[in-house]
Amino acid sequence: MKREDYIAYHRRCTERMIAITRAKNEDYSGGNDDPFFNFTRVEALGVCDTEIGFITRMTDKLSRIVTFVRTGTLQVSEESVEDTLLDLANYCILLAGYIRAKRARHEGANGAIRAASSRGRVRGARLAHQRRSGRHNARSL
Questions:
Q1: Considering the entire predicted model, what is its pTM?
Q2: 42 and which of 46, 47, 68, 129 could share a cystine (Cβ 3.0–4.6 Å)?
Q3: What are the start-end ranges of the H helices in the chain?
Q4: 59 in Cβ contact with 92 (< 8 Å)
Q5: Which residues contact 130 (CB under 8 A, 6 or more apart)?
Q6: How confident is the model over 65-86, as a mean pLDDT?
């Protein structure tokens, strides 16, 4: 395979991956708009952290790939080794997306706390100035 053949193959694989992840995400999320819904369930049920749930699914795929590498065959003929590899790649992208979304939520929460804290400091400074200048009243407190 030459470089351009590989790039064309990669393009076909990523197009298949998008189709697969779209269909499976619909099946596993039950129509919920949260793409990580089925993975966050393990944490909600107290089974394990969401990230460990992802890694568990990835390990399942790796085990199947190891079996293929060692034996050259797979017992479930409906899923080829290429399908398994594409599923693993999709799990990697899902986990990366989950980590990104989790960080954004965390940073958003921290930003809201910092903003509220900052507003509190500004209001506190304003009130302190009013008290020092004798311009405070019950409403301004």
A1: 0.74
A2: 47
A3: 3-29, 37-44, 50-71, 81-133
A4: no
A5: 136, 140
A6: 94
